[in-house]
Amino acid sequence: MERAVPHAVPLGQMEVFQALQRLHMTIFSQSVSPCGKFLAAGNNYGQIAIFSLSAALSSEAKEESKKPVVTFQAHDGPVYSMVSTDRHLLSAGDGEVKAWLWAEILKKGCKELWRRQPPYRTSLEVPEINALLLVPKENSLILAGGDCQLHTMDLETGTFTRALRGHTDYVHCLALRERSPEVLSGGEDGAVRLWDLRTAKEVQTIEVYKHEECSRPHNGRWISCLATDSDWMVCGGGPALTLWHLRSSTPTTIFPIRVPQKHVTFYQDLILSAGQGRCVNQWQLSGELKAQVPGSSPGLLSLSLNQQPAAPECKVLTAAGNSSRVDVFTNLGYRAFSLSF
Amino acid sequence: MSSESSKKRKPKVIRSDGAPAEGKRNRSDTEQEGKYYSEEAEVDLRDPGRDYELYKYTCQELQRLMAEIQDLKSRGGKDVAVEIEDRRIQSCVHFMTLKKLNRLAHIRLKKGRDQTHEAKQKVDAYHLQLQNLLYEVMHLQKEITKCLEFKSKHEEIDLVSLEEFYKEAPPDISKAEVTMGDPHQQTLARLDWELEQRKRLAEKYRECLSNKEKILKEIEVKKEYLSSLQPRLNSIMQASLPVQEYLFMPFDQAHKQYETARHLPPPLYVLFVQATAYGQACDKTLSVAIEGSVDEAKALFKPPEDSQDDESDSDAEEEQTTKRRRPTLGVQLDDKRKEMLKRHPLSVMLDLKCKDDSVLHLTFYYLMNLNIMTVKAKVTTATELITPISAGDLLSPDSVLSCLYPGDHGKKTPNPANQYQFDKVGILTLRDYVLDLGHPYLWVQKLGGLHFPKEQPQHTVIADHSLSASHMETTMKLLKTRVQSRLALHKQFASLEHGIVPVTSDCQYLFPAKVVSRLVKWVTIAHEDYMELHFTKDIVEAGLAEDTNLYYMALVERGTAKLQAAVVLNPGYSSIPPIFQLCLNWKGEKTNSNDDNIRAMESEVNVCYKELCGPRPSHQLLTNQLQRLCVLLDVYLETESHDDSVEGPKEFPQEKMCLRLFRGPSRMKPFKYNHPQGISPGKKNSES
């Protein structure tokens, strides 16, 4: 006689487990494909999900089109940062950076193209990589994270060329100055450092927490987000979100928001920021709060503006954080819908 | 008419010409004496051809005379007048003749008409006759076809085949020489043979009947003998009882049980047989017994006329009662409800003994009118348990078996037909009666071989014994794990209430040696209270807070920090992990919505529970999770960055060794603990 194995037991267990996993999911990073039609999102379980923005935004979008086209296990630990080159999706988590071909990523069982580990000095633990930054002029990638250094990697050869040392605690974020080959980095030690890539030297240091107007000792010193535009720099974290004039190293505007911000970016003549709390904040450069657009996650960690010229119809703002959902804003005024893991 | 006839008469007198007219005139003259002269008769005698000749001649004569008159007149003269006169007279004679001919023609025409008419009438008559004849022919033809179509009865009789007939029939019936050529005679002969054969068979049937009667009589005699044997055997059995007991061979008991089992309703019987079989084959700790009154069960199967009587009686009674009890309709409905929910007087008891001598008593009932099975459960332990307050529900018969299979909470009837029955007597749901009747879990139906269609379509349909057998083993195992996990929880709760998190030695490696945070409270809370807590919203929204679950509130303290943990305990524990939701009261209220690290702590106990399961069958999960929570709170408090602006030492000095206080974009504290290295914020460095 054939036994009817009651498969219902493990199924119930699986369902509960999946629900819990979704409930405790954090989406750390996002990246838009070079064609502008797909969005990659990486979570704390090391999975990367690829969403089709064009399908979700099309007029006949169904519930399924808001689900990932494909989800794969990319890293063992969380996927902290992702960037896209013309052909590759680069993802970084604990200790390693991996490259995936965008052209093959939608296929089942996609394997990484290559993986690299920066030369770490410590052997006690694997430092995480918190930020990736592409330097298009040099065709190189800058990685920064747990080992308090900035590593530059030549994308052509895959070798690590330089290590920029100076931070005394781990590095949170990176930003590139477009005109001169200079990189900004912000870290847990509370300093924003400006590096010259040609000489590999630190050229300027702003210790934000030492400025009384933006220091908030109960929150800590850490700088978790950075953005730059010509001579201007905006940074936030433990200290208040502040707009700086780089040449004179002076804070010009302090944005009146209490909760620490986790992501900031310049957009046209606005500054967009997100952090604790459900909202995406829009600031005038003068420090005036232009709008607060509520999203669906209790806390946001990353914003992504899809400005790929190849897909003007997919020009959206996406925000992700402490939930399994990626909020999509078709204009800056309100949340249109959420993509969900 | 008289004028016409007088006119006619006149020319006859004057007529003087033509020889044929001469003779006729003579005859007609003689006729004229006696009777009236008839021109009609004359017509018959005259030849029309000659009349026509005469007519032509007369016309010529007239023309000639007219021409001569004309001639004479044009010549003129005295003598002319005489000649003209003469000629005129001649022409008058001719006119007479013409007139006569005209009359004749008329008469002929009339005569012709009459003749035609007569002929036509004749033809009509003939036609009628013809039609009659045709009709008769048709009728006859119909009769013929009817005759041809007539089916004789013998055609339906399945006769023996022709060869067989000639082979087997005696020659005086078959008469081969006559019947070979004549199919009619042949058929008759075959029918004869059939009759003959049937007669013989009837004879045989009668013989058999008498034979049967004889055998019946014999059986009767033998039965009498056997029944006289029964008391003797009984007495022998009785005598052998002490021997059986002496030798520990409970044949008799088993026999009695089987005897009783015959009176079980089919589902209970299936359960009984399968459970006994499973107990004998695979699981010696399972014992099966039947309870209840056999006599009552027998009474259920009384001859039907009794019950019919009853019914009519009760109908009459009902009428009376409706009259009598009109104002107390509720009472009557109550009776009906009781009747509907009636249990079969017999029930099957399963005792499942677990390793630690605790026993799960299951009593299976069968609701006859609803055609479903229910179960009541009771757990007894070898040693008397001190029941902790929070463990109240753990072993209660109402919840101990809840959700043995996911979603099977046993509060809804599994038989879709029942809903209609309930509607009739005004039962809203079976839920209100389960305490009394027992729970109709789905697995109980399956053990009893009852199969009801589910709301969702199903792939496999297995019936009866095979259904029961296929579920017996898994269900028994599930029951055992359920009881054991419940008993384990029961014990754990006792110490939890005293603020001790019992960590067994084989789970010790999961935690650092020194844990400062202490569990201070462990209480059970109601489902509604859980739903109303402000920090459990996510779980409620995710649909994980069903009312079948058990809910607890734990309080972990260290110094001024108080961590509340709302716990959802799924009945399927420990295969489905308990779910913790946290709320920390320290420097303000912190929950997962405003503190990423609280969220990470929840994730550590809820999602990474697998490493906390400990040795199988992972009964230590809940206590390990609680201990982990204490460790997490320690880490949280010790790594909290010191606010430089506040004077004085830190409340919680850092005691645990960790490389980094924060890590990653969300500044995660080093919650991971790796034995034996200590606390680390990320994954273990396996490469080094």
UniProtKB/TrEMBL annotation, chain A:
It is found in: Nucleus speckle. GO terms for cellular component: nuclear speck. One of its GO terms (biological process) is apoptotic process. WD repeats lie at residues 164-205. One of its GO terms (molecular function) is RNA binding. Its main location: nucleus. Transmembrane segments: none annotated. The keyword Nucleus applies. Keywords: Apoptosis, Developmental protein, mRNA processing, mRNA splicing, mRNA transport, Nucleus, Phosphoprotein, Repeat, RNA-binding, Transport, WD repeat. Belongs to the WD repeat THOC6 family. Component of the THO subcomplex of the TREX complex which is thought to couple mRNA transcription, processing and nuclear export, and which specifically associates with spliced mRNA and not with unspliced pre-mRNA. Plays a key structural role in the oligomerization of the THO-DDX39B complex. Component of the THO subcomplex, which is composed of THOC1, THOC2, THOC3, THOC5, THOC6 and THOC7. The THO subcomplex interacts with DDX39B to form the THO-DDX39B complex which multimerizes into a 28-subunit tetrameric assembly. Component of the transcription/export (TREX) complex at least composed of ALYREF/THOC4, DDX39B, SARNP/CIP29, CHTOP and the THO subcomplex; in the complex interacts with THOC5; together with THOC5 and THOC7, plays a key structural role in the oligomerization of the THO-DDX39B complex. TREX seems to have a dynamic structure involving ATP-dependent remodeling. This is WD repeat-containing protein 58. It comes from Canis lupus familiaris (Dog). The gene is THOC6.
Automatic annotation (TrEMBL), chain B:
Keywords: Nucleus. Residues 22-42 have a biased composition (Basic and acidic residues). It is found in: Nucleus. Residues 306-319 have a biased composition (Acidic residues). Its main location: nucleus. Residues 1-42, 301-336, 666-688 are annotated as: Disordered. GO terms for cellular component: nucleus. The keyword Nucleus applies. Belongs to the THOC5 family. This is THO complex subunit 5.
